[in-house]
Every structure is written in structure tokens, then in C-alpha cells.
Amino acid sequence: MKDKVSLVNKVPVKCGPSCYTHRIQPDLGNGGFISQVKSFFAKLFDTADWPARWHCGNWSDFHGWLYILSDMAIWAAYFAIPFLLFRIISKRKDIPFPKILWLFIGFILLCGTTHLLDAIIFWWPAYRLSALVRLFTAIISVFTVFALYRLLPMIYRLRTLDELEAEIEERKRAEEQSRHQQVLTKAAEDLMAKKDEFMSIASHELKTPITTVKASLQVLERILAQNDELAVIAPFVHRSSKQINKLTSLIDELLDVTRIQAGQLQLHKEDFNIMKMAAECVEQCQSVDGMHQVTIQGDENLTVFADYNRIDQVLCNFLTNAFKYSPEHTLVEVNISSVDNGKIKLSVADRGIGIPDDKKDNIFDRFFRVENTSQKYSGIGLGLYISSQIIAAHGGQIGVTDNGVNGTIFWFII
């Protein structure tokens, strides 16, 4: 028994009288919650209830200073990190999610403060202040976790450096292609402008001699009609007259294009019966064609306020195309009907070779012709372009649809 007592007395105990002189006051643990809270804040900086940490426990110098220096090092790092984050936020305004960085700054500062207080408590036992700082640290920690959790989907969508570099390269290629396309577009516009200038000059210069030749052929036709001895040359004169009419029509189209490009397409509007106009146009086109049967359906009393000659020109173009591209099917249908808001719809349906779906969007472009028909059928691709511009000048619509299995339906609404 004596040996045990002597062994106990040899153990160095620093938590001696200085610990027991700082006993908890009886009223601190026995009051209500509100009174405990009031007492806590009233004595926030009061250290009389505890000894300094050096005086409570069995601390060696090495152990104590290892604890203190470690906490001080952590505190220094925790205060340096927010400073660096603040520098980053200040310098880089494009940093994503800046609010979460501010939460991290507050969280890290409070964590560092808890380590600083842990080191100070070795001399100044501010346990109440330490508890309060830890409460603030816990609160901002929870907010930081919640905010970070909400940002996870957006963070997952952030592109990597390789993805950004790939996007930059893709944009560079797109910009280069765009510049190349602009150069090509400018060259095409310049070429088209020169082509328009040439067409304007050529068509005007050709108009006078062709008119003279046409008048001469008409005189010859009258002479042939009065002299049977010259009947042998009559077919040649008739063929020449027919070709001159085609050439005149071509020159008229070129003149129309130059007027359209110059914004000089003039309309002379009047009220007229569209059914009568259609009948006259059909009769004129059939006299030239002589192969196709044309039916006209619709209300015979419909009138429209438009340019008679220009609408007649559009219908003639529709009929000419129907005749040209349906050589094996003789039926062509013209339909005239009233649509919404007092407008008139006119359509021409044929049973010809049709138009591929991928070409329909370009069918009304200038000089456009479908590749598989351009060699077989004559024309320069201006008729439908001029027709679309005439309808546009009337404030109407123009289009093309399929006619069942074969053929097409060209239509306009004015």
C-alpha cells in the first residue's frame, strides 16, 4: 500500500490547485435556458471560470508548443488563402460562381480563427468566445455546403481546357470559312452586277434590230399570202418568224430582270375579271403550243385589282412551263378560287416530270434550272424569277407543290 502511494506521488500533475480554484458556479448549470444564454453573453470575455490550458492537464513543453505552433501555422494558412481568393476575385471579374468563393472566404477565415483561439487559450481561456466562433463557423459551413450542392450541375457542365481549346479552334475555322464565304459572296455579287449591266446593254441594243427583222418578216408573210409562186419559201419565213418571237420574248425577260434589279418594275393596276384574263391567256398559249388541252375552273365573276399585263405574263409563264415539262400528258388544269380576306388564288396543274423536293426552295431564284432538265429543255431560268418578283410587287404569295404522283402545281395569291 505504501509503494502504491509513493508511485502516485511521483506522477507530475499540473492540474492541481489552480484547476480546483476555478470551479463552476452553482447557478451556471441550474438556471433555465434563457438565463444560461444571457449569462453566456454577459460573460463572453470573462475567463474566471477556467484556468489557462497550460495549467490544466499534464502538458510537456514539447507537447504544448507543438499544439500551439501547429494551430498558429494552420491559422496563418487559413488567413492567407482568403486573401489570395480575394485577389483572384478582384482581378478576374469573369470567374464563374463568385458568390461561392465569398462563402469559402468566410468559412476559411472562421476556421482559421478557431485555430487561433485554440492557441491563445493556452494563456487566455476564452472558451465562451471560442464556442461562439465555432457556432458561426458551423452556420457558414452549412450554407457553403448547401450552395456548393446547388452548383454541382453547373460545375459538371463546365468545359475542360481541352474542350475550350477545341471550341476556339472550331470558332477559328468557322470564322475563316465565314471570311472565305464573304469573299465568294462579294465576288458573286460583283459578277452578278456585271452580268446585269451586260444584260441591260445587250437587251437594249438587240431590241431595235430584232424589231426591224420582225417587221420585215411580217411584210414577207403578207407578200407570201398574196403570191402563190413564193409558197416554196413560206415555211422558212414562218420558222424565222417563230424564232424571232422566241428571241423577242427572251429579250423582254432580260429587260424585266434589269428593271427588277434596278427597282423600276412599274405596275399599272386596274379592276378586271380574272377568269376572262385567264381564258384569253390560255387561248394565246394554246395557239402556240397546239398539243395540250387546258381546262379552266372557278367563279366567272371574280375580279381583282392588279396589273392586267403582268398577271397575264405570270399565267403565261406557268402555262408555258406546264406545256414544256409535260410533253407526254396533254391535260393542264387552271383553277381560280377566292381565299381569305378577299384574295384570289390562281393555280396551274400539270402531269409532267415534276420537281425534286430539294430543288423547290430554289425554283424561283434567278437563272436557276434543275440539273436533270437543263440539257433536255430550253430556257435560261428567268421566267419563274420574274413571275415571283411580279407577285411580290403585288404584295402576294407564290409557290409550287406536288400534283399527286407526277407533275406540279404552280400557284399565286394576290
Q: Can you describe this structure?
A:
- The structure is a single chain.
- Helix content is 61%, strand content 10%.
- It has helices at 2-9, 17-20, 26-30, 33-42, 61-91, 98-120, 127-156, 161-226, 234-261, 274-289, 308-325, 371-374, 383-393, and strands at 269-273, 293-298, 303-307, 331-338, 344-349, 397-402, 408-413.
- It starts with a helix and ends with a strand.
How much of the residues is beta strand, in percent?
Answer: 5-15%
Coarse morphology = rod-shaped
Terminus-to-terminus distance: 124 Å
Count of beta strands: 7
* Major β-sheet profile: 5 strands, mixed
Features:
414 residues, alpha+beta, 13 helices, 61% helix
Chart the SSEs and their pairings.
Elements: H1 2-9, H2 17-20, H3 26-30, H4 33-42, H5 61-91, H6 98-120, H7 127-156, H8 161-226, H9 234-261, E1 269-273, H10 274-289, E2 293-298, E3 303-307, H11 308-325, E4 331-338, E5 344-349, H12 371-374, H13 383-393, E6 397-402, E7 408-413
Parallel strand pairs: 2-4
Antiparallel strand pairs: 1-3, 4-5, 5-7, 6-7
Helix pairs in contact: 5-6, 6-7, 8-9, 9-13, 10-11, 11-13
